[in-house]
Amino acid sequence: MSRRSPAVAGAFYPSSKTSLKKQIEECFLHRIGPGRLPSGKQSERKHPLALISPHAGYIYSGPVAAHGYLELDNRMRPRTVIVVGPNHYGIGTDVSIYPEGVWVTPLGEVKIDHNLAKQLAELSSIFSLDEISHIREHSIEVQLPFLQYVLGEFTLVPICMLDQNIESSIEVGKALAEILRERRDILLVASTDFTHYEPHEIAVKKDSIALEKIGKLDVETLYRVLYEMDISMCGYGPVSAILEAARRLHATEARLLKYATSGDVTGDLSSVVGYASLKIEYP
Fold this sequence. Notes:
Blueprint: E1 3-4, H1 17-29, E2 50-53, H2 58-70, E3 80-86, E4 95-97, E5 102-105, E6 108-112, H3 114-123, E7 128-129, H4 143-151, E8 155-161, H5 166-182, E9 186-191, E10 196-198, H6 200-215, H7 219-228, H8 236-248, E11 255-261, H9 262-266, E12 272-280
Parallel strand pairs: 1-5, 2-9, 3-8, 3-9, 4-7, 6-8
Antiparallel strand pairs: 2-12, 4-8, 5-6, 10-12, 11-12
Helix pairs in contact: 1-2, 5-8, 6-7
């Protein structure tokens, strides 16, 4: 059985189980975080259709990510989580689904939903079943400890996008929507950071424009403003794929839960990265 070992444990988040759990809890309780821990309770209330979540080191983006993951508390638990992230390293195929086995974090193993991965791959030729694309990539990995902390057990389908053009994103979104029409026990997560390494004031201004388009599920205009405003959002393909899936499932909006920059954490506003958490509810 294939085992995908963590690539950024000890860098983006702690490598020990105890320290990692402590840092996740600190993210929830942080002054930029939601201010409370998940209760661990379940209910009959539906989980969100999708979350959009950042993927930087937890010290920087974890409190923002916690706002999204708190939305999974006191709801029905998804059976499978599909996490779509960008490929930062240029390794592997255009759109890669990790095919089978387990992903390992300091909090334990997460099984790949092999049948769902295969089903997705059969829906469109845009997908490849490929492990190589995922070896170094952190954008999907950093979502897992938060998911493990809040959900406990779940299965995973990781999708890594090297090709983030609009045609690819729409094709991925179309396939995701087809799967979700059949299964309502799946949570989608799009992994992205927003503006990179610009002054805080500029980052906030640029990101507010992108977030407005995301809120309206407007993929075409999002691509246009990213280009026209030179917004260095790294996971625009994964976000657009989730927006397209949500639109096809008749969702109407993505609601912003929290936006902040690294400067809000460090106090250095001269060169920041923007982070946002959003949720999309079932219609």
